Amino acid sequence: RRCTDVICCVIFIVVILGYIALGVVAWVHGDPRKVIYPTDSYGQFCGQRDTPNENKTILFYFNILKCASPVVLINLQCPTTQLCVSKCPDRFATYIDVQASYRYRPDQWNYFRQFCKPGFNNPRKSVAQVLRDEDCPSMIIPSRPFLKRCFPDFSTKNGVLTVANQTTFKDGRGKTRNVTDLREAANGINNVLDARSVGMKIFEDYAISWYWILIGLFIAMMLSLLFLVLLRFTAGVLFWIFIFGVIGIIGYGIWHCYWEYDHLKGIPGSDLTVYDIGFQTDFKVYLQLRQTWLAFMIILCGVEVIIILMLIFLRNRIRIAIALLKEGSRAIGYIMSTLFYPIVTFLLIAICISYWAVTAVFLATSGEPVYKVMANQTLCKYANLTCDPETFNATNVTKLCPGAQCTFAFYGGESLYHRYIFIFQLANAFVFLWLVNFAIALGQCTLAGAFASYYWAYRKPADIPLWPLFSSFGRAIRYHTGSLAFGALILAIVQLIRVILEYLDHKLKGTQNSFTRFLLCCLKCCFWCLEKFLKFINRNAYIMIAIYGKNFCTSAKEAFFLLMRNVVRVAVLDKVTDFLLFLGKILVAGGVGVLAFFFFTQRIPVFAQEVPMLNYYWVPLLTVIIGSYLVAHGFFSVYAMCVDTLFLCFCEDLERNDGSTAKPYFMSASLHRILGKKKLSPKKA
Question: Residue 196's pLDDT band (boundaries 50, 70, 90)?
Fold first, then answer.
């Protein structure tokens, strides 16, 4: 063994160091508080410790009618003053009414004043000037906090939209308005609030049923192990039962078509052709024609003949595929530690995802507050221009555009770092894809090395290394990091292109250019096929790397041509393996799912008293079913890697050896018998 693809290994290490540096720079410039805390019109965080807003955790909008929908309120800046408050309004009030009664009702003014700009306490200021300068809101309405923002407290009464049981309110500008003016905001808010209520109930269900979910997943793990062990004895039986079942079903279909064809004989109109009656929306019309059943019978007969001929001519290859499946079960039985290696891959991928997500958040929150002119007049030429809130009042903008304000817009900047944040986000995504693919490649190469050591052991299990999995992992890291990184790099480039194409497709979805949509669709399809092909090539290249220790390109070339020389065996083995493993996943997930259904619906009398009281019994049920399928997929992915490795070893064994004493076969006795050899060469003592 020697180090392979050293240049790519060096580049990979340098990229990892650069990725760490990018994370550090993002951590220095970013501030996740911009995501956690809402920001007022002055760029200050609501609820931030050691600031004047420490006890003011909620964002209040002066005129929520200017905000079209909750999506605008959450994601964009609403063109109205926004303040941090300690609580949302709980009553209707207008500045006009409060100003008129502040002398003999000071409590109303003191309550209303907490929703004005900090420090404003001049109820004598004219209403026009207050509204122009937006010192106070023109009105307040009963609201409740959601996503740390004050939203109107909508409800329905007898099918009528209300706010605090009222259908009208004063807008503070001399008009009485209907609460239906807030309908757009109301619909979105109520939907989100309903989703929040459902989310809380789901969280409660998880909190009281998590241990039963874990028990269900443990049962799924034991069933998966049991299925893999039983495949050694039942692989052939399961496959042939399925094949003969399909043949029987098709045979019944042929008989039924003939019966219908014969039964319609002599019935008026049944001898018409499909061409005679033309196109009919009611499919039952065609079932009254003898020609239809004759066509069905011919098609089913053709399918039946094809299946039988394939079984006749491919019977030996099918026997080899089943023997390899049994051999894979036997290999896993000798190297049981491989079943738990997917946990290592899962942890590596979880680390990559966490680092990518944190870096993306810090990059997204990098920047200084950017302020823009918010003008009430649509024709103001200064609208949406950047401004400085400290010097804004000294400019002539307020004279040319009465009511205009310099308010916080977003976080950004004009420095070199801020201009290239989008490029950094792309780099973050690309390196993330590279690292994830490397983690998967490392797992595949490690498992392939362990199972190859089983196949090439002349006396099984005596010649199997003591710690085959750990030895294979060490070889992959020490010698082949560059090769694994090279394969992962190629795949990451294709995946990044697919992500960009999906982004472009999303942005151009509303375009009317048919050619552009057609071109994007073709590109997406081509790169999807390319990704699937590369995953297939990479997987087999990693197996060859684990066996022979050559570089990636050489291993990929040798694996590809080896598979092409055995293309029929590859197709048969792939389909037989896919069927049996899919059947296993369905059996495990379905079996555990049925058990969980009877348990959570209290249909098992023995455990009826142990079932927790749930809001939605389908929450733990779906979790158990999906989790069971993923657990089975994790175990069976090891089994699939085992079968693929043994198959390549088997093909290499056939090409390099002839069964003589000088070149003995390393395959098992069952495979040797299927090939028609008389006997294995005598094994060494």
Answer: low
Cβ atoms of 144 and 150 closer than 8 Å? yes
* Residue 537 predicted with pLDDT over 90: yes
Vertex 447, ends 443 and 452: CA angle to 5°?
150
Report residue 7's pLDDT band, with 50, 70 and 90 as the boundaries: very high
Sorted by where each begins, the domain ranges of the chain are 58-190, 369-412
Between β-strands 58-61 and 82-85, what pairing exists: parallel, antiparallel or unpaired?
A: antiparallel
The confidence score (pLDDT) of residue 360 equals 87
Give percent helix, percent strand, percent coil of the chain, each to the nearest 5: 65, 10, 25
Q: Which helix (H) or strand (E) holds 661?
A: none
- Residues 203-226: what's their mean pLDDT? 86
Average pLDDT of the residues in 552-557: 94
DSSP β-bridge partners for residue 151:
144
Task: Report the mean per-residue pLDDT for the chain.
Answer: 82
Contact 397, 426 (CB under 8 A): no
Backbone phi and psi for residue 610, each to the nearest 5 degrees, phi listed first:
-90, -10
Q: CA 271: distance to chain centroid? A: 54
Number of alpha carbons in the 13 Å side-chain half-sphere of residue 221: 10
What would the two tokens of residue 436 be? Answer: 């994830």
Q: How far is CA 32 from CA 26, 158, 364, 371, 413, in A?
A: 11, 44, 9, 19, 17
Q: pTM score, two decimals? A: 0.71
Assess whether the previous peptide bond of 268 is cis (omega < 30° from 0).
Answer: no
Residue 184 has pLDDT above 70, yes or no: no
Would you state the pLDDT for residue 412?
A: 65
CA of 595: how far to CAs of 75, 90, 586, 618, 628, in Å? Answer: 44, 50, 14, 13, 12
Q: In whole angstroms, how far apart are CA 522 and each of 113, 508, 513, 516, 517? A: 61, 15, 15, 10, 9
DSSP string computed for 589-650: HHHHHHHHHHHHTT--GGGGGGSPP-S-THHHHHHHHHHHHHHHHHHHHHHHHHHHHHHHHH
Residue (of 153, 155, 123, 157) closest to 141 by Cα position: 153
DSSP 140: E
Nearest to 115 by CA among 50, 44, 60, 191: 60
| Rounded average pLDDT over 538-562 | 93
- Quote the CA–CA distance of 318 and 236 in Å, as a whole number: 9
| β-bridge pairing 82-85 and 93-94 | unpaired
Q: If you write DSSP's letter for every residue of 521-534 in order, what string do you get?
A: HHHHHHHHHHHHHH
> What are the tens digits of pLDDT across the range 118-148?
888 888 888 888 877 778 888 888 888 877 8
Contact partners, residue 415, CB within 8 Å, separation at least 6: none
Give the whole-number percent of the chain exceeding pLDDT 70. 89
